[in-house]
Amino acid sequence: MEILERPTRKQQIEERATMLFKTKGYAASSMRDLAQILGIEAASLYSHIKSKEEILQKICFKMANAFFLAIEQVNETTPEQQLEAAIKVHFKMISENIDASAVFFNEWRHMSEPYLSEFLAMRTRYEQFFMEIIHQGIKQGQFRVIDEKFAMMTILSSINWTHQWYRPTGKMSMDEIGDHLSELLINGLIKTRNK
Amino acid sequence: MEILERPTRKQQIEERATMLFKTKGYAASSMRDLAQILGIEAASLYSHIKSKEEILQKICFKMANAFFLAIEQVNETTPEQQLEAAIKVHFKMISENIDASAVFFNEWRHMSEPYLSEFLAMRTRYEQFFMEIIHQGIKQGQFRVIDEKFAMMTILSSINWTHQWYRPTGKMSMDEIGDHLSELLINGLIKTRNK
DNA sequence: CCTACCGATCGGTAGG
DNA sequence: CCTACCGATCGGTAGG
Question: Which of residues 23-42 of B touch strand C (CB under 7 A)?
Fold first, then answer.
């Protein structure tokens, strides 16, 4: 039924806030800016939300959960295949949520405690997932010996930065970028290519 | 003479502002925050600077110039050697200016026109430098055929993100990270490795 | 969802 | 470099 698919006012607020925070940054975005976009008064926002920061928390944690849900479905067997799948699925989440990703990567530090600590703990756990794959790959001799945290950071930052330049209308499709990302990054890690 | 080496008040303001902007973000940093760090009143800042944004402009353009100066000294002959040198020198500039780099990468959008456009034009020119190396590498058959802008973005974002986690006190030295960065990124690009 | 409004804080100036 | 202060804007509340 159509009425079920129409976004609630709260969802609209969150959606527009995501775009606003991405464009101007959280601190420089005012509740009056947001209200104007929605065509209502600033005071009216507070019938639907508790505070400005609450919106930021929703955006950041929703995105964090989406990343976890996506990566938990990686079920390949070898580290190389796992890393390839993880890279692709991580990029897929970003490309399907470009605005929320930008807020997730750039505005999280404006959260107050205890949300900030919880957020950082989740991020660390997520990074551990990638590090474990790299660790196994090195242990099994598929990847060259390299500092695991360093390799993880280098790979993740390449993917994460795509939110800055990826456009659905660009000449490369989402799948192509995912393929090229994993190829470029993994083949720089594989020890025995062309052997 | 000692008096020549002592930073001017203006330099002190810029230095402390760089750290403040990095930590809190430009928009969330107030002139009263900055004044307090320096132990003076907010109004007193304006004897040395024209505006809050002027400080941001100084930081961003100084860093942009530093990047250009560094990369112009790359004088290797083959694309592979050029790319390796460019990666190392780019990372070197970041690691030697971690605070300013963070502001450069995260706060530039808070500049107003015409500074914003000029800044973005400089960034594009800088990116062209990397793209040209990649272009030559593909043309000469050293690099695999790949979208040049995509490869440039992937490489630069890996290096640029180092400002988020690189610590001079970490277990990897600056030179080691530079070496590993270029190795990880380039060997993912080279077509005929181990041939 | 609105009007009316709050106290706090903002970047910046005047004048010394 | 300070005191004193400006108009503007901030996130948010009361009451309907």
Answer: 29-33, 42
